[in-house]
């Protein structure tokens, strides 16, 4: 299985390779156990401001899209990505959906950006052809049988018109994060039906995605971290 980040925004010129862990360092990827997950509100000091300094620029972006991020940048001081991550996910919350990504650049021991997310707005879990959508904001859970589970996130996203602003960090600023198991190929290759798959002795989903609309991005060059909110 591989961790995956899918941004809400169109690609930009910056091209770091992202590597990271989905949930705190677990090799088993046991990511979702509803009885144990506890969601807490994300709190920070200060007042969130628009990602642009002038209202006119924000209004111009709103004319072309319906998803415009808000952010506030704060000097990081002694705060590290690891410390910030532990503020959101405690050590005993090993099954809580979350991520800590580090940008990787050749020849450097530390990439420029770290991206952190927890408490996703929504989760999509696919097991064979049964897809479960958990909308944590609305408190709603739905199930449906589909031939291709990827039609579900596409359907959710089809009305979004995100606007990429120059002021945003050149890093992952929100979107889908999760994994696709090796068995995901069986949705595409009909010659490999699930009936021929090896016995599932770990009870892991084929696909598990979380929609993270609140992200913390550390810029290790500028020595700041940005709190980003994408209200959808």
From TrEMBL:
Q: Which SUPFAM superfamilies match?
A: ADC synthase
- Tell me the ranges covered by the Anthranilate synthase component I N-terminal domain, including all copies: 79-223
InterPro entries, per database record = ADC_synthase (IPR005801), Anth_synth_I-like (IPR019999), Anth_synth_I_N (IPR006805)
Task: Please give a single GO biological process term from the UniProt record.
Answer: L-tryptophan biosynthetic process
**Membrane-spanning ranges:** none
Query: Domain of life of the organism in this record?
Result: Eukaryota
Which Gene3D superfamilies does the annotation name? Anthranilate synthase (3.60.120.10)
Query: Which protein is depicted?
Result: Anthranilate synthase component I N-terminal domain-containing protein
- Organism equals Rhododendron griersonianum
């Amino acid at each position: 299985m591989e961790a995956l980040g899918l941004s809400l925004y169109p690609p930009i010129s910056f091209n770091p390779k992202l590597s990271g862990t989905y949930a705190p360092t677990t090799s088993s990827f046991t990511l979702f156990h509803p009885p144990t997950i506890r969601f807490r509100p994300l709190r920070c000091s200060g007042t969130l401001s628009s990602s642009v300094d002038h209202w006119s620029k924000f209004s111009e972006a709103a004319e072309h899209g319906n998803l415009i991020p808000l952010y506030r940048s704060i000097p990081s001081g002694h705060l590290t990505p690891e410390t910030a991550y532990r503020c959101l996910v405690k050590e005993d919350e090993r099954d809580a959906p979350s991520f800590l990504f580090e940008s990787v650049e050749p020849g450097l021991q530390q990439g420029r950006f770290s991206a952190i997310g927890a408490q996703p707005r929504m989760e999509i879990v696919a097991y064979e052809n049964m897809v479960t959508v958990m909308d944590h904001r609305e408190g709603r859970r739905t199930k449906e049988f589909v031939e291709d589970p990827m039609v579900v996130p596409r359907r959710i996203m089809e009305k979004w018109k995100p606007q990429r602003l120059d002021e945003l960090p050149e890093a992952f600023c929100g979107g889908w994060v999760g994994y696709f198991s090796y068995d995901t190929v069986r949705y595409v290759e009909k010659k490999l039906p699930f009936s021929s798959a090896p016995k599932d002795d770990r009870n892991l989903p084929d696909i598990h995605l979380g929609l993270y609309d609140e992200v913390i991005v550390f810029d290790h060059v500028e020595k700041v971290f940005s709190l980003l909110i994408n209200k959808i």
